[in-house]
Design brief:
By secondary structure, this protein is an all-alpha fold. It is globular. It is about 65% helix and about 0% strand. The chain contains nine helices and no strands. Bound molecules: zinc ion.
């Protein structure tokens, strides 16, 4: 799933077909064999490079595949092998990528939010979750971020849209409270570290999406 989502993200940036077109190296254009495409393992065996031209493959691809694998183990360990686990892992992978894409490009794409929203609707219908509190969470969180976006310039509109979907995934006010705290506190800690390391200064802008993703994934796997 993680490997496919990465491909989907890259190809849609370049307006390329992401279903029928075979995988190829972006440097030498060589079509890759199936054994060049095994997540995690191919990266390790080829030492992070293209086997044909030696071009480096981004470490981010490798890290996202490992992280997705670890999170999937967490989910299956807790909920067993079931449709629920499968949907939850899919949802977590999309959340992970929304955070990553925001970090890498500073954009949160509506298409990713729509995919996430649809997965959550399926989960809610399938498990007959009450959606009233979720809708309320969604509006509270969305309204707060839209106010931040309008009046402080701290957040982008993408963050506000993402907050709406995050709120919808949360089940009650306690989860909303935790989500809010974890995302803002983790953002503050990381920003402080980056300022101390002089990678950022007080005027730098930051992407907030990764912290929302972190907070949401933490709540989903510990639920
Ligand atoms: Zn190559």
């Amino acid at each position: 799933m993680a490997s496919f989502y990465h491909l989907y993200f890259y190809r849609r940036q370049r307006d390329e077909d992401f279903i029928l077109k075979r995988s190829f190296c972006e440097s030498c254009n060589k079509t890759l064999k199936f054994y060049d495409l095994i997540p995690i393992f191919s990266y390790v065996f080829n030492r992070g490079r293209c086997r044909y031209c030696g071009a480096k493959i981004g470490l981010d691809k490798f890290v996202l595949e490992i992280l997705s694998g670890i999170l999937a183990v967490f989910v299956v360990n807790k909920s067993g092998v079931s449709i629920y686990s499968w949907l939850l892992i899919l949802e977590i992978v999309v959340i992970l990528f929304i955070g990553y894409i925001d970090y890498a490009t500073t954009y949160i794409y509506n298409v990713d939010l729509l995919i996430l929203f649809v997965i959550e609707i399926i989960l809610k219908i399938y498990f007959r979750d009450s959606i009233y509190l979720s809708i309320l969470d969604s509006f509270i969180l969305g309204a707060f971020f839209i106010i931040l976006y309008k009046f402080s310039g701290m957040m982008g509109l993408g963050d506000a849209m993402y907050a709406l979907v995050c709120g919808f995934i949360l089940r009650d006010f306690f989860e909303l409270f935790l989500f809010f705290n974890i995302s803002f506190i983790s953002c503050a800690i990381i920003s402080l570290v980056l300022i101390i390391l002089k990678k950022k200064n007080l005027k730098s802008s930051i992407s907030f999406g990764p912290y929302m993703s972190f907070s949401l994934i933490l709540l989903l796997i510990l639920r």
